[in-house]
Amino acid sequence: MKRPAFFLCLFALTAAPAQARDALGMFGSWGAFRDAGIPRCYAIAMPEKTAKADVDAYADVGLWPKKGVRGQVHFRLSRRMQPGAGVQLSLGGQHYRLMGGGIDAWAADARMEAAIVAAMRSGEIMTVSSRDGAGRMFADQYTLPGAATAMDAAALACAGR
Fold this sequence. Notes:
Largest sheet: 11 strands, antiparallel
Oligomer: single chain
Distance between the termini: 36 Å
């Protein structure tokens, strides 16, 4: 399902507790934002395709300069995972087993994050899948055109902070 850019901006502005955020731009279905007070910057998108959702799903790649964190990959899933269920990311012909619980999933380590970010830069589609509380498979699919530019905009906004 195609979502207008203003909906993504609205979502990014309301997804976390109220804080000042600077919208850096929309790039395809990806937005780039900066929270100057923290400081942190991130690229974020909502899935283009998902089954019946329990929550608003999104994928983001974040930077926290003061913590030395760059390229942290995070997924908010559209459904709560079944306890003990695995989470898999399919991207560019590769499959990554993510860590997670509840409705959130992350790369297992910095090396995996770097591989995912590199694949996102040249990929077209990524799909995150797991099992919900009833044991049914579900998947959230993201389009990637614009992701690299959004990640670069976020990185530039946090450079030197």
